[in-house]
Amino acid sequence: MTNPISTRKHGDVLIILSNNPPVNALSAAVREGLVAAIEQAEADDGVNAVVIACEGQTFFAGADVAEFGTPKAFQQPMLPQVVDQIEACTKPVVAAIHGTALGGGLEVALSCHYRVADPTAKLGTPEVKLGLLPGAGGTQRLPRVAGVEKALRMCATGAPIGAREAQECGLVDRLVEGDLIQHAVAYAEEVKGVRPIRKASERQDRVENIDPSVFDEFLKANGRKFRGFDAPMKNIEAVRIATQKPYAEGVLDERKLFMELMSGGQAKAQQYFFFAERKAAKIDDIPEDTRPRDIKRVGVIGAGTMGGGISMNFLSAGIPVTIVEMGQEALDRGAGVMRKNYESSAARGRFTPEQVERAMGLLNPTLDFDALAECDLIIEAVYENMDVKKEVFGRLDKIAKPGAILASNTSYLNIDEIAASTSRPQDVVGLHFFSPANVMKLLEVVRGAKTAPDVLLTAMQLAKRIKKVAVVAGVCHGFIGNRMLMPRQVEAMKLLLEGATPEQVDRVHVEFGMPMGPFQMADLAGVDIGWHRDPNRIESLRDALCSIERWGQKKGAGFYDYDEKRRPSPSPVVQEIIEKFAAEKGVERREITDQEIVERTLYPMVNEGAKILEEGMAQRASDIDVVWVYGYGWPVYRGGPMHWADAEGLTKIVDGLKRQEERMKPDFSFSKLLLDKAADGSKFTRG
Ligand code: 3HC
To answer: In this structure, are residues 226 and 232 in contact, taking their beta carbons and an 8 Å threshold?
Structure first.
């Protein structure tokens, strides 16, 4: 293997250059090369200063996450030693930062005595997102250089800061435009004689006499976001230690906290998920020479909540949108809602007023269906009904230009049947956005039997452009996400009749880490969605609620009662209906344990996920996890349902399902894949 670290001299400045694509991760070879290069600088009397820089798209983007859990992670020199050696160098060392200096990369930069950066660079400590904390002195050096409040926010949230902000807080010494290395060398020439050499670990001025309320205030403002996660609290603790102990002691505490996190299940799940998310973007079986189609203008049919939200994604990414409605009033309302959404985001600082105007300026609202002829991609977001969708696609077929991609935002319906209503099924694909479509990160890309490879590739690349995480799904009822929701919903309803309350079922889910439980979700989405609308036809508990207009939050009543501020409380009316309904159906009521709720609602989801895999409706188990984390808020620290099942143990899942099988009949049947894997000891997501 070639050495990723090379050196060259420019006068008396030694330039240490890393070339480890794609992101200059600090792999064992890079660490080894860095130490050797610093030793070279020390040994060479002709060297008076050093510059550390990276080739390619970015400065070191962190430790090599792929090495975690392998012997390579422990191969000497480890990162703490590397950064100590850089800082101990007797000749001034300048970091030249471009792209993203993240995690271990920022720790390398912090161990350098000076930092210059390209103005577009970003600096951050995203370890918390991998269930970790900066483990190479970062939690101790960052507050000493950038100040406690900045370090606290960066470490606990993982959000990076821009180079200008970094300069303002002292993290970057100089911003330089143009040839970064040339500027860094010039800077090194300026500082090469400065003694004593400035070392972050020796600074105390920014960590002394810190009012401890800084930490309490931070937690008060951010605590909710951290619910269930281990790593944020340990990051906060580590930064607090920087204000209490000298560097040498603090760094030992940091190491201990780092190792505690690293050996825990959350870090494994979050690191697994990091790669799962990136893998999801890859389609296994499309020819390598496939080229995406050019998308210059997008058409959206329907200016309702979904159509508007979908449009905003493209407008925000600078892609013009033609949006079509049937009536002027609906069109005006739709455009008005989009503007309002943009303006409220602008009020929260997410957009500038100019960006809002630019985005809205790209919108062409029209009643003229034929205007869609100029679009390269047309997405329908009309009423969820097969006949309606077929009619729309039949019309589109007649007017869309050759090569235009025709997409349906259906959440359940058969894409092949929709495609068959056109003369170009190869151009038809499902693009299932999740509501609210301008906010939710997930996009299910539904691959029909005849969808062309370049259509799929275009959809995946476009998703990245509009900042979505796309997952390919096959054609089946509800695709990946909603299909797995169904068994959960069925069992949750049955549990109510058998003796559980909506509050109990929801509490179990929230304690598990979901943002809300099945009944809170039903109330939010609308209990009446998909209801037959005949108040006299009462065949299920849901029919009973719908018949008295308990349709959820929008009616102030659903599974819960709501006050004027939409705060829920248990509903005696619902309890009465449940008991009455159970009596009519002859369901014997009993005490339901929390464990049974887990086994009846979460385990069947794993079983359904296994069926989805078995049938080839998902490319890989990790894709299912990506759907659930980004589409439904499954706690990322549990990795997603399939990773979670692996971590729990598949025999445990199967045993639990067997225990509940009788009660779940006739709605439940075992996945053969799940049974096989449990029997042979293999896993869905590893091994
Ligand atoms: N280790 C190993 N591989 C990495 C990596 C890392 N730190 N960061 C990115 N990669 C890989 C990705 O898996 C991907 O591989 P693939 O092409 O085979 O799928 C490739 O690099 C490109 O990554 P992205 O698709 O994410 O590229 P983007 O350009 O969209 O984003 C990035 C680049 C902003 C650097 C983003 O990859 C990122 O955020 N990386 C993670 C950074 C991070 O978390 N660093 C901290 C690591 S932990 C640490 O440093 C511990 C220390 O404190 C001891």
So the answer is: yes
